[in-house]
Design a protein that fits this description.
The chain has 277 residues and is mainly alpha-helical. It has helices at residues 16-40, 42-63, 73-87, 90-102, 105-110, 118-144, 152-181, 186-199, 212-219, 222-234, 244-247, 249-275. The protein has one domain. Residues 43-275 form the ABC transmembrane type-2 domain. GO terms for molecular function: ABC-type transporter activity.
Length: 277
């Protein structure tokens, strides 16, 4: 008498609805894994939240910001710092991905009956949640140091949407660079390259306060587009130069992240697929 065997369908089995259910379940599992990791090691999360706050306070009270601005320098500086915080979030993404690679976590996931893309979806969802919290903390800090928005709730929500779009784009840059680097030690090397991009923007000073050639470079920085667009939506001074980039900042604040996603999303997915073979 033979025993009956039960076959449990895998993520590749069943119809389209079954595969979608597997994908959603696996992605949520990976998201919860990241959130549980932060709950077990809250120091990493706290440092990630406190560091941009310290930068904002330092530039507000010690270094000074808003060079070349007509109006309140704080209202110029805070939206720029929000954009900077979203862009530099790629560093935390890089560190988390390289740590998983170094510990062989990706290899363990590869041996499980799960949707391969769930790892990337879980990473991106968790990082976006963390970024939303960071954005709320930075907004509250800005309010505490005297920053205000003036154009109503709808415009403010539009500004938040542009900031999160920039973060989503940089997230895929971070994932791709992490898989290319492969080791957590390489994150520092990438930071050396990332920081100049942040400072070659209009986060801390207007382009017209810079030499002509440098101002032109700054105006076309994707971070500058987001910072200028967010200032416009919040009703804060932006030091508009009358250039095409400045006058179409809201359009560029959408086009730049979409272009970045179009390049780095497929690169990251293909690289991850090669790692999983």
């Amino acid at each position: 008498m033979s025993a009956a065997t039960t076959t449990v369908p895998g993520p590749d089995g069943g119809g389209a609805s079954a595969r979608l259910g597997w994908a959603l379940t696996d992605s949520w599992t990976m998201t919860r894994r990241e959130l549980a990791h932060w709950a077990r090691q809250p120091v990493e999360v706290v440092v990630g939240l406190v560091f941009p706050v310290m930068l904002l306070l330092m530039f507000t009270y010690l270094v000074g910001g808003g060079r070349g601005v007509v109006g309140d320098p704080t209202e110029f500086l805070v939206p720029g710092m929000l954009a900077l915080t979203m862009a530099f979030g790629l560093e935390s993404t890089m560190l988390a991905v390289t740590q998983d690679l170094g510990k062989g976590v990706i290899d363990r996931f590869r041996s499980m009956p799960m949707v391969p893309g769930a790892v990337l979806v879980g990473r991106s969802a968790a990082d976006m949640l963390q970024s939303a919290v960071a954005l709320a903390v930075m907004t509250g800090t800005g309010y505490a140091v005297g920053w205000r928005w003036h154009n109503g709730a709808a415009a403010a929500l539009g500004a938040v949407g542009l900031l999160l779009l920039l973060r989503f784009a940089m997230l895929w840059v971070g994932i791709q660079l992490a898989m290319v680097a492969g080791r957590p030690e390489m994150v520092t090397a990438v930071q050396i390259l990332v920081w100049p991009v942040g400072f070659l923007s209009n986060v801390f000073a207007t382009p017209e306060s810079m030499p002509g050639w440098l101002g032109a470079v700054v105006e076309w920085n994707p971070m500058s587009a987001t910072a200028t667009a967010v200032r416009e939506l919040f009703g804060n001074p932006g030091g508009a130069t009358g250039s095409w980039a400045a006058e179409h900042a809201q359009l560029l604040a959408i086009l730049w992240p979409v272009a970045i996603i179009a390049v780095f999303f497929p690169l990251a997915v293909r690289k991850f697929a090669r790692l999983s073979r």
